[in-house]
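We treat protein structure as text, and this decision shapes the records that our systems exchange. Below, we set out a record of this kind in full and without editing:

***
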Amino acid sequence: MSKRYAAVAITRSGIELAVKLGGRLSGTEVFVYAKYSGGLEARSGEITVFDGPVRGLLPKLFGSYEAVILFFSLGAAVRLSAPLLRDKRTDPAVIVIDERGEHVISMLSGHLGGANRLTLEIAGLLGSHPVITTASDVQGTFAVDLMGLEYGWRADSFTPMKAVSAALVNGEPVALVQESGEREWLLPGAEVPEHVCMFTSRTELRHSGRSFSAAIVVSDRLGAGPVNEPMIAVPAECIVVYRPRSLVLGLGCNRGTSVDELEAVVLHTMNELGLSLQSVRNAATAGIKGDEAGLLALCAKYGWELVLYPPEQLNTVELAHPSEVVFRATGAYGVCEPAALLSSGAHSLLQPKLKSGNVTIAVARVVYPEEREVSRSE
């Protein structure tokens, strides 16, 4: 898909507006109804002229574009879109614009699909009034289902989202526990309301002695989930757990080590540490291992970047137990430990070098820029 957005118009006025938007909103392909196109010619990747009912066009657009922008009535948009809806996590954003261009309405997938953000952008381009009805946006608070989206945070489950969102927008007491991950996750224009209490750990929450209707937990620790360690006075179905990408795996291995052996060591180590595999940001190793098939296959399976360091850089990290054997093989006195520390920016390890068979592993937690600033100021 070369274009991100599809703008669809079926009237003369709507077509004029859609073409205008196509020229101003990068990544937009315009679909115009032939009968009222006024002889407008199709231009590859920019304008498509269709001759047939729009009902037959929309299914293809819903499966191919991030957002579908409809230049006709809201009622028609609802009726035409309803049969195509599957899941809020996969449905495209749907935006409706009246044919005079007075209002831009975020109709569908306002949060996860980005319709609210795109509505504001389009309204600015056309000089229109944006219409956004999602409660968190109207109240100026944050949206539970968008937390950490730009940083790649992943929710353990979307099932509790509705209950937690309801508690948030209805002013019920909500606990927000952040044990790891980026601290500057709040989107511009949003704020944490007074009925949300912030905690830096579950221990702090427990010691508060307070009861809450719902909880949001941001943690790379497996014990953060309701199954492993229930929150005090918070129903399990009202706890959203986010996994930030806050961990780095330093890995070393003998030449030809299989992906199965590497994976087994990683899974065992993470389980022993009580850390979530979903929170792994990347793996790191020596540059000489950049062509190691097992490492590459492991990273490909889990979607991890493999960060490589030359021996000179690895040797800048002071090690408690430098290895002459490793130095003769790689030119560095250590691989997994310095690689994990360099990639994470940390000064200490959650798991120092652990050797198992042909594999060595170390684990570090990422230090974020804002944390470095605080450290320097202290």
